[in-house]
Structure formats: C-alpha cells, structure tokens
Design goal:
globular; single chain; 15 strands; alpha+beta; 5-stranded mixed sheet; 8-stranded antiparallel sheet; 4 helices
C-alpha cells in the first residue's frame, strides 16, 4: 500500500527452512523476482539486489497473518506498507483480461525505429503470414529481464518455424540516442537477435498506450506480451510475467506459452 495510491493486491509464496526464507510476491503486472531472507523471532526480513534494483521487505509474523510490513524499493522510490493473511486458495485476475483490444479492433498498426534508426513496421513483409510475438518492455524493468532472457533463448530455437518476435522499448527518456545507449547493454547481456524498436515514449507517460498502440485498451504494466496469428490478428494480450523466481508458476508459463504458439502455428 502506497500512501498516495489505492491499495493493491499481491500473493506471497515462500518456503522456510529453519529461520531461512525464500520466495517472491506475485502481482498482476509481474513478480518481485528472487527474494531471500530470515525470520528472527517474529521479525521477517527479505531482500534482493539484481544489479539495478534493491528491494527490502520487513514485517512481523503471526500465526496466520503478517503485520506492520514495510517495503523499501531504493533510495528514491519511497516507502510502502503491506500486510498479509494466510490464504491457500488466493488467485490473481486472469492475465489475459487486464488489457485487451478495443471493441472492433483486431490488428495492430505501428512503425518505430530499430536500434540502427531504421523504421520497422508490423506491416513489413518479414512478418506476413507468420506468428508474431510482441513484448512491451524496457531496460529498467526487472520482469523484462526475465522475459527477455526466456524469449531470446526461445527465439534462437524456434525462429525457423515461422515465428517472429518484436520488442517495443519504453525507456525512461524520449531521446532516441539515450534510449539506445540504455538498451545496448541490456540486449547484449541476453544476446537478443530479434528486432527491438524504440518507441520514444516513457513508461511514466499516462498516454503511452494511446501514443503507441491505440488499438489496445491501455498498457497496465511491463512486460506486456501480445500474440498475433498468421492472419495478422491479435489472438491474446498477456499483462505481466511470472519469472523463474516464481517456481511452479514459471513452469506453467512456459507450458502455456508453447501451447499457445504451437496452436497458432498449426492454424491455416
């Protein structure tokens, strides 16, 4: 809970061995990656540092609840408060329902410059009659790191099957050269071989959806993944990403991802 915002809901899944705890929080826009910590008496401490983001969670643990929680996300991002109750059947909204295509819309229409400044459009011949996976991402986004790692490896193994991947980058500046510089190390780290386009729109822009993909009902989080069939129609839009820090949820994601893409490839 942020004092300046309406409360939001997450699911915490953790395993404890002695006083050592590890796990993560799952939300509608992704997970908090790999969290590790300890329970000392009734005090819980969890943290992570991925080279860019530093998270610290503290709270008091009761029998079936957690109270007095505090979440620190770096020096400049303020303090949030949290509580939790035990619920073995807790679920999050279906990721496919958070963002959808607007009524009457079936296809996307966009063109943005790639890392070399060359315009790439979803209407280009390269993408015709192919299954296309579009990921809305940014080099600043920890869940995008996990998804990009997965998509990069997956694309290398599957690109000859009639499938393409496009990254649409929403960097923290509208300046092309600064955005390119931020992305270069990110894309090199994951050896990305599919095109990544620079939208020139920031993630903080409240009009980011309208400015870049007006056919959608909006952009609620990063990454957002869009699946397009061989006829160029949007099949599904998935908000968020359950990465390797989520254990069985990540395994389920991979199974669902491959099932969906296989079905789209089999369509005539």
């Amino acid at each position: 809970k942020d004092a300046n915002k309406a409360p939001s809901t997450a699911i915490g899944e953790f395993k404890q061995s002695g006083n050592t705890v590890h796990g993560t929080f799952l939300t509608t826009t992704g997970d908090y990656r790999f969290l590790d910590g300890v329970v000392d008496g009734d005090t819980l401490r969890l943290s992570t540092f991925d080279g860019s983001h530093a998270y610290l969670f503290t709270a008091f643990v009761g029998k079936d609840s957690i109270t007095g929680g505090r979440f620190y996300a770096g020096a400049g991002d303020g303090l949030q408060y949290w509580t939790a109750v035990k619920n073995d059947t807790a679920t999050l909204p279906d990721e496919r329902t958070i963002v959808t295509m607007k009524p009457g819309q079936q296809q996307l229409d966009f063109a943005f410059p790639d890392m070399n400044g060359q315009k790439v459009s979803i209407k280009d011949d390269r993408f015709k009659d192919k299954v296309v996976i579009i990921t809305l991402m940014g080099s600043w986004c920890p869940n995008c790191m996990d998804e990009t790692g997965y998509l990069s490896n997956w694309y290398k193994k599957n690109k000859d099957r009639g499938v393409e991947v496009i990254g649409l980058a929403y960097e923290r500046t509208p300046d092309f050269e600064k955005s390119k510089k931020s992305l270069e190390g990110f894309l090199k780290r994951f050896d990305v071989q599919y095109p990544v386009l620079i939208t020139g729109v920031t993630p903080a822009d409240p009009e980011k959806g309208a400015k870049t993909l007006p056919q959608l009902t909006g952009i609620k989080g990063f990454p957002t993944t869009i699946f397009i069939n061989k006829k160029g129609k949007v099949q599904e839009v998935h908000t968020g990403f359950s990465g390797p820090g989520t254990g069985e949820h990540y395994e389920q994601f991979q199974a669902d991802f491959n099932r969906l893409v296989n079905n789209l490839l089999e369509e005539k």
